Amino acid sequence: MKYIHFAVLLWLGIGLARAQDSTAVRRDTVIAPTTDASANDLLAGLTDSTETQALLPHKMIFTQRAFWGPKGLLRTMKIAPLTSEGRVHELKVRRTMLVAHQIGGFITLAGFVAQGLLGAKLYNAKGQDYVDIKKWHERSATFINVTYGTTLALSLTAPPPVVGAKKGFTSIKLHKYLAVVHLTGMVATNILAHMIENNPDLKPIHRAAAYTTFGAYAASIVSLTF
C-alpha cells in the first residue's frame, strides 16, 4: 500500500513539474516577443520624430516657411527635398546669403550717409545748385532703395537655421526689432519724398523720418558687429 501511495505522489509531482515547465515555455514564446515588438515600434517612432524635428527649427519667419518649410514652395517643386544631405547644403547657402546680407548692409549704410549729406545741402540750396543736388539726391535714393531691398530679401529668404532662436533678449532679436523700425521709416520716407513737391510743409517730417531710419539702421548693424 505504501508503494502505491508513493507511486501516486511521484506521478502527481512529475505532473506538477511538467505543468510548471509548460507555463514557463508559454510565457517565453508568447509574451516576450510581443513586448519586444512593441518596444521596437515605440523606439522607431521616437527616432523618426526626432530626426524630422531636427531637420528644421520649430519656429521660422513666414518668408522662410513659405520657401523652406515642410510644405514650402521649394519642397513642393522638388527643388530642395527635405533630407539630411539637403539641409547640409542649405546651411552653406544660408551662410553665403547672410554674408552677402552683411555686406549689403554696410553698402546701404554708406548710401544713407551720402544721402544725409545731400539732403542737408538740398534744404539750403537755391537755383541751379538746388536742381543739381536734387538730381543726385534722387539717384542716391534709388541706389539706397535697391541695396536696401536686396539686403532685406537676402535675410528674409535665406534657409532656416538648424535650431530656433535662443530664449531671452539677444543681439539677434535686437537686430530684428530695429529692422521693423527702419523698414517702417524707409516706407514713410519714400512716401513723404513724393508728397513734398505738392506740400513743402512736410519737409521737417520727411527729415525726421529719414534720420530715424538712419539711426535705427546704423544701430541694427552695430548690434551684430560689436
- Into which percent range does the helicity of residues fall? over 70%
Mean pLDDT: 81
The helix-strand sequence is HHHHHHH
Question: Tally of extended strands?
Answer: 0
Count of discrete alpha- or pi-helical segments spanning 4 or more residues: 7
How does the overall form come out from the CA principal axes?
elongated
Determine the N-to-C terminus distance.
Answer: 104 Å
Largest sheet: none
Class derived from helix and strand content: mainly alpha
Strand fraction equals: under 5%
Radius of gyration: 36 Å
Low-confidence stretches: 1-6, 12-39, 41-50
Task: Describe the overall structure.
By secondary structure, this protein is mainly α. The protein has 7 helices and no strands. The protein has helices at residues 2-55, 62-68, 73-76, 84-124, 127-156, 171-195, 203-225. Helix 4 (84-124) packs antiparallel against helix 7 and helix 6 runs antiparallel to helix 7 (203-225). The radius of gyration is 36 Å and the shape is elongated.
Strand-helix topology:
Elements: H1 2-55, H2 62-68, H3 73-76, H4 84-124, H5 127-156, H6 171-195, H7 203-225
Helix pairs in contact: 4-5, 4-7, 6-7
